[in-house]
C-alpha cells in the first residue's frame, strides 16, 4: 500500500502508555524521540510493544515549522 | 517558548514550492525526507529558503503508525 | 501494511483539482461524496485520476461529530 | 449552519468508550465502521449513545489516500 | 446543528486569498487575527467575502499550547 | 522561536482534566472558552495549572468555518 502522506519515518517503539481511549506510543526514530497518540484499540490491534519496528506516518499539512528568533 | 507538541524534529530546508495559498516545504531531517504544507504567508514571514535550519513541530495526535503485514 | 488509523473508507476518484502545492481529490465512497486535500506531489506519485480505486484514511482524532439541534 | 468541511458522512452511534479526557465513538456509516475521538465533555453534551444519528465531519486536509502497490 | 468541536470562535472575514485548490481566509476574532485554510470550493459555497460573520471551528485535539521559557 | 502556525491566541488556563494519556486543558481567551487536548506528559512538563498564561497555537489548516444557514 502506498500513502499520500509525505512523511514516513522509521522508528522503534520505546514504550506505550494506555488510557481508556487513547494510547501514547513513545518512539525512537534514529535517536529522535517522537510520540504518537492513537486509539487504545489500534495500539492493541497492531500489537505495539517495546522493540516493535513501525513507520510514523504524518500528513504534510500536519507539520508546523519553527525558526529561532 | 516551550510547546506542548511532543514531536520537534531538527531539519534543514531543501526547497519550497509555492502556490497562491499554500507552500510545500521540503526538508532534510538527518537524512530523512519530510514535507510541511504551510501558508505562503508563513513561508515568507519565516524567510524559508534552501539551507535554512528549522524545527518540524508535530502534535502527537497527528502521528499515525503503520506496521508491515 | 496495517495502519493505526481507525477510518479506512473505500472510494473511487471522481476528479482531481490541482494547484501549485495542493490537489483536491474528489471521491465517491459508495455514493457519499468525499474530498481529500493532499500535496500535488502525492497526487501525481499515486497516479490519481478519474476511476482510480483508493482508500480514504482518516485518524479518529480528526473526526468531529455533529447532531441536529 | 453550513460548514466548510467537505466531508460530512451520516452515521449511527454503535458504542462509546469513555476515558477521563477522551471518548472513542464507534460509528456505523452505511455499513462502514468509523471511529471518532472527541472529548468526553462533547460526547456527554451531545448525548451520544447507541442508536443516535450523527454526522461525521472531516476536513479535506485531514483525509489521506492509500492505493495498493 | 451542535458540534463536538470544543472551540467555536465568532469572527468576521477580513480577506480571502484563493489558490487553485486552497483558500486562506483571514479573520478578525474580536481583535485577534486568525487564518483558516479551507478548500476554494468551500470558500465559494459559503460565499466568504470581506465582512461576512463566521464561526471558526477547531477540534480540541488540534490546539497546541505554548508557554514562555 | 517563531512558528509557521497562523493562529496564536493568548489565553489563561482555567482547569486541567487529566486522563492516563490525554489532558483536556480548559482556557479563557479574552472571555472566549477554548479547550486544548494535549498529552498528559506535555501538560505536566509545561506545568499547566489554573491561572497559567499560555498561547493557543493552531495551524490554519485545522480551522474549519461555519456560517448560519
Automatic annotation (TrEMBL), chains A, B, C, D, E, F:
Keywords: Molybdenum. This is Molybdopterin-binding protein. Pfam families: TOBE. InterPro entries: Mo/tungstate-bd_C_term_dom, Mop_domain, Transp-assoc_OB_typ1. PROSITE patterns: MOP. It comes from the Bacteria. Residues 2-67 form the Mop domain.
